[in-house]
Amino acid sequence: MATARRSRIESLSNPLVKRMRLLREKRHRRAEGLFLAEGLRIATEAREAGVLPQWLFLADEGAAGHPLAKALVEATLAGGGEVIDTTPAILSKLSGKDNPQTVVGIYAEPKTRLGDLDRAAAPIWLVAERLRDPGNLGTMLRTGDAVGAGGLILLDESTDPYAVEAVRASMGAIFTQRLVQTHWDDFLAWLRAGPGELVATWLGKDTKDYQAVRYAAPTFILIGNESQGLPEAYAAAADVRVKMPMMGKADSLNAAVAGAVMAYEVLNQRRR
Amino acid sequence: MATARRSRIESLSNPLVKRMRLLREKRHRRAEGLFLAEGLRIATEAREAGVLPQWLFLADEGAAGHPLAKALVEATLAGGGEVIDTTPAILSKLSGKDNPQTVVGIYAEPKTRLGDLDRAAAPIWLVAERLRDPGNLGTMLRTGDAVGAGGLILLDESTDPYAVEAVRASMGAIFTQRLVQTHWDDFLAWLRAGPGELVATWLGKDTKDYQAVRYAAPTFILIGNESQGLPEAYAAAADVRVKMPMMGKADSLNAAVAGAVMAYEVLNQRRR
C-alpha cells in the first residue's frame, strides 16, 4: 500500500490528467484495469460498499466543505489512494461533461469471474446477452440492486459495463452488484454445476405467461440483445421460457424494462 | 392535398435536405411542426397506425426492393406526401448517424391536447413530470404500447418527445400512443373533471406497497423527474402514493423502469 498522498493539479496538460482522461476509451480502461465514476453520490455508495478509489479528484469549490466529501477523502487516504484537489475545468476534461460533478473517482476494475460468485448469496441474478446500450446496462445493475439481486452476468459481446454512461446509469450499483463478463458456454456449464433455474424472456414459441410460473431460487433471469432478442439455442437451453403480456402493436419491451418487470415478479412471489 | 410526387436528390447541399436536417434541433422542429423518424420498421408501424410521412427519404440500395418499403412508398404518395429517392450519405446527414437506416420519414407533430383525449379509451395512462432523458421518454411510450395504455402525458418542462433519440427509443410507439405536453395545474384540473385515479410513485412518507393497492380504471401512473422525483405537492394531490420494494442500497429505480413495473402491476390486476 502506498503512503497516503494529497496533491494539487491545476494544469490541463498534467500527465496524470491526460492519462486518466483516456479512461473514457474502452481500450485504455482495459489496458489500465481502471474505470472512472463521477459524483459524490456514487463515490459515497462505493465507499459504503467498501470500495475506494485509487485516485480521487475533487474540485475545491462545492466539494471541499461537504461532510460526505470529507469522509471520502479520509477513506481514500486511509485506503492508500491519492487525493487530488483540482479545478472544475479538469473534472470536466476527465468526465467529458460540460457541467462536471464535483468529484471524480478512479477505481480498479474488479474482474470478477463466475467461480467467484456465491450463487446462494442472492435469490435473483440477472443475465444479459449481447447488451448493446450502456444506459440499459447501468439501469439493469440499478434494478438488480433494488430487487436484491446478487449481480449481473454479461454474456458474449456486451457493451463495456465500465463505460462512463453505464457507471452513471447504475447510480452506484456498479459497486454493489457483482459483475461477470463471460460467454454462453462457460456460463451454462457453471450454472448446471449447481442449483439455479434459468428463465429466458423469449418472444418465440413454447413460452409461458411470466406470472404463471413459480420461480425457484436462485433464479437466473436471461435477457436477450436489444434488437434481436435471444438466440434460439439459448432460449431452448433455459429451464423455462416466459413472456410478458403485450397488449399493443409492439412485440417487445426495452431490454432493461423487460429485466425489471421479470425481476419484480420473482421478488413479488418471494414476498408472498 | 398536394399532387403525388416522387423525385431524386443526390446533392448534400440540396435545400430540402438542409432544411430537414435542421429537424434534429428542437427549435427547428418547433418552428416547422415536423419531426424525423428513422427506419423501415418504425415507418411501417406509423403506416399501420394510419400515420404517413410528409416526406419519405429512401436510399435506393436496400430499401427499394423491400415489400414494406414499396407499401410505404405507395401509402405516402396516396396520402399526398413526397417520396425522395436518395443516397445513404444524405440519410446519414439527415439522421446524424454514421450507419443510417434505409428510410427516413418526416412527420407532422400531432399537437394533441388534454381535451383531445378520451380517458375511457384505455385503462392505463402514463404521466411523467419533468422527464429529462429522451431514451427514458421513448422507453415509456414503448412500455405504454405494451401494457395497452392510452398515452403519455408530459408535465412541465420535459425533454422533447420528438427528438430523434426519443422517437428511436419508442420503437414506433410515438405513433400509437397519444402524447400530450402540458402543465401540472392544467393536468390536475382536467383529471378531476372526470373519472380517473392518480397514482404517484413516491419515495417520501405516507406510501403504500404498490401491490397492496387495488387500482381503478382509468389509472394515471405519475412518475417524477429522474434525479429529484416528484414535487411533494404533486404527490400530495395524488389519490394514492405507492412505492416498490427496495431491497438494496439504492432508494429508487430508473424512471422508465419504475413506470413499467407500476404499469405491469396495474395490467396484471386487470388480467386476474
From TrEMBL, chains A, B:
<dbReference type="InterPro" id="IPR029026">
    <property type="entry name" value="tRNA_m1G_MTases_N"/>
</dbReference>
<keyword id="KW-0808">Transferase</keyword>
<dbReference type="GO" id="GO:0032259">
    <property type="term" value="P:methylation"/>
</dbReference>
<protein>
    <submittedName>
        <fullName>RNA methyltransferase, TrmH family</fullName>
    </submittedName>
</protein>
<comment type="similarity">
    <text>Belongs to the class IV-like SAM-binding methyltransferase superfamily. RNA methyltransferase TrmH family.</text>
</comment>
<dbReference type="InterPro" id="IPR029028">
    <property type="entry name" value="Alpha/beta_knot_MTases"/>
</dbReference>
<feature type="domain" description="RNA 2-O ribose methyltransferase substrate binding">
    <location>
        <begin position="36"/>
        <end position="113"/>
    </location>
</feature>
<keyword id="KW-0489">Methyltransferase</keyword>
<dbReference type="Pfam" id="PF22435">
    <property type="entry name" value="MRM3-like_sub_bind"/>
</dbReference>
<dbReference type="InterPro" id="IPR001537">
    <property type="entry name" value="SpoU_MeTrfase"/>
</dbReference>
<dbReference type="GO" id="GO:0006396">
    <property type="term" value="P:RNA processing"/>
</dbReference>
<dbReference type="Pfam" id="PF00588">
    <property type="entry name" value="SpoU_methylase"/>
</dbReference>
<dbReference type="InterPro" id="IPR013123">
    <property type="entry name" value="SpoU_subst-bd"/>
</dbReference>
<dbReference type="InterPro" id="IPR051259">
    <property type="entry name" value="rRNA_Methyltransferase"/>
</dbReference>
<dbReference type="GO" id="GO:0005737">
    <property type="term" value="C:cytoplasm"/>
</dbReference>
<dbReference type="InterPro" id="IPR053888">
    <property type="entry name" value="MRM3-like_sub_bind"/>
</dbReference>
<dbReference type="GO" id="GO:0008173">
    <property type="term" value="F:RNA methyltransferase activity"/>
</dbReference>
<dbReference type="GO" id="GO:0003723">
    <property type="term" value="F:RNA binding"/>
</dbReference>
<dbReference type="InterPro" id="IPR029064">
    <property type="entry name" value="Ribosomal_eL30-like_sf"/>
</dbReference>
